[in-house]
Design a protein that fits this description.
Length: 459
């Protein structure tokens, strides 16, 4: 069987890892595909010794790789959304399948790119775009295909998870933990995409499209970063039996889809709460399978290369099965189903993405108040007036010489707008001497009851 020809654009960490893993495991990969996979053309301003030794063509112009007629599958690992978009569009126009690790490109431009690929009869594969070496895309699109997905919640940014682990275990400030992440190479010199939640929001938009059959809607993801997190809240959460994780949460409700990224208190007994350091984890709750957890390295050369090559193998099998069959699709490459379905069941217009104000969760509150008689009863009275219940309350006694006590509360589930109204009332009390810190709380045991919103409206 004639070898499958690969074009790779970008020889950064992921591109180099892809070349090295392919070289290391070439024989076993060939057996699984039914044909050898060879790197034929690389777009890069640098090279690798093994590529030069093999006589692989190297081009500084990435588009030359996309236009090379011998290339069957193009691997895009250059990142960004400008040149990468032009490259993927050109590869599709040339009738080539595409493998990409570029979550920003898909989250922001994926709807148009998938439509173009479908029209041209080629596929875009993107396992490496979400959670590195964890096969979560395959799990959602294939392994759980018979299920109705109710909830996807994940630690999908290793930098943020490392920072939170350092803050909990070493009592570090956010700034100190970020500096430690940068020193170890876990965070970029400009870490904004990681610590502000943008990276996780890109990935969540992709997971939600897969899980719920909705269009990619990155602009609708509520995003809250880690920069304002106080070490004392990390320690208070631990004392209450919780871990704080920076989660991406996509939940199906009767009113619509919740899409949100934010710091979250998770019960320590939950497996996802025990995933520390730079590791990633994704929890999926589905009607037939129940909860399943996928955990592993979310970044790095080899783990991400593993995901890239999983897609390459998948597409190479397609090329092998359709090679020479000119009636199977344009350029004989077949007409595959879209990797992100436009819709699985409900028309997209009937599955809105909820505003964060209408999302439902429990909440952690912390504030300082005057240590005087009657203050706590005034505070709990405001909860009663708002129709909100308190799950737990702790009052930390004043330190020596202080007249203020720290009060920590965990509410029962409520809609965000109800909590905001309560916080506004609390801030109006003259007995409070600090702002009210609010962090959302999720038990992740199950998805929201389908009639929860309806019940709340009737109340």
């Amino acid at each position: 069987m004639e070898p499958i020809k690969l074009g790779i654009c970008g020889l950064g960490t992921v591109g180099r890892g892809t070349v090295e893993v392919l070289e290391r495991n070439a024989a076993s990969i060939a057996r699984r595909v039914g044909a050898a996979i060879e790197v034929a053309h690389v777009g890069s301003r640098q090279s690798l010794p093994q590529l030069r030794a093999a006589g692989v063509q190297i081009s500084a112009d990435h588009l030359a790789v996309a236009r090379d007629p011998q290339v069957d599958i193009l691997v895009e690992t250059i990142g960004g959304t400008t040149l990468a978009r032009r490259l993927v569009e050109e590869a599709i126009a040339q009738g080539k399948h595409v493998v990409t690790a570029n979550k920003a490109l898909l989250a922001e431009h994926g709807n148009a790119l998938f439509a173009a690929a479908a029209a041209q009869g080629v596929q875009i594969a993107y396992e490496a775009a979400v959670a590195g070496g964890i096969p979560i895309v395959h799990a959602l699109s294939t392994g759980l295909a018979a299920n109705r997905i109710n909830l996807v919640a994940g630690i999908i940014n290793g930098t943020g998870n490392f920072i939170l682990t350092e803050m909990r275990d070493k009592g570090q400030t956010f700034a100190a933990a970020l500096a430690a992440a940068q020193a170890r190479g876990y965070a970029e010199a400009d870490p904004a995409f990681d610590i502000e939640g943008t990276d996780a929001a890109h990935k969540l938009a992709i997971l939600a499209a897969l899980a719920f059959g909705i269009p990619l809607q990155f602009d609708c993801v509520f995003t809250e970063g880690l920069t304002e997190l106080d070490p004392q809240d990390v320690q208070h959460a631990a004392a209450l039996g919780y871990a704080i994780k920076h989660l991406g949460i996509a939940r199906r409700t009767a009113a619509g889809i919740e899409l949100r990224v934010h710091p979250t208190l998770v019960p320590r007994e939950q497996p996802i709460a025990q995933v520390d350091g730079v590791m990633n984890a994704v929890l999926v709750n589905a009607d037939a399978s129940g909860p399943t957890l996928y955990c592993g390295a979310g970044a790095g050369g080899d783990p991400t290369a593993s995901a890239v090559l999983a897609d390459v193998v998948d597409l190479a099998r397609l090329v092998v099965s359709t090679r020479g069959d000119k009636n199977s699709g344009k350029n004989g490459k077949g007409v595959p189903a879209a990797r992100v379905p436009a819709c699985l069941s409900d028309p997209p217009a009937t599955v809105p993405v909820l505003n964060i104000a209408d999302c439902t969760t429990a909440f952690y509150l912390r504030f300082d108040a005057k240590d005087q008689a009657g203050v706590l009863s005034r505070i709990t009275g405001l909860f009663s007036d708002a129709g909100l219940s308190v799950e737990a309350i702790q009052q930390r006694e004043p330190t020596a010489g202080s007249q203020e006590a720290t009060i920590i509360m965990i509410t029962q589930r409520a809609r965000e707008w109800e909590l905001r109204r309560l916080v506004q009332a609390l801030q109006g009390l003259d007995a409070l001497t600090s702002r009210v810190v609010v962090i959302r709380v999720e038990d992740l045991n199950c998805a929201e009851s389908p009639d929860e919103h309806a019940q709340s409206e009737e109340a």
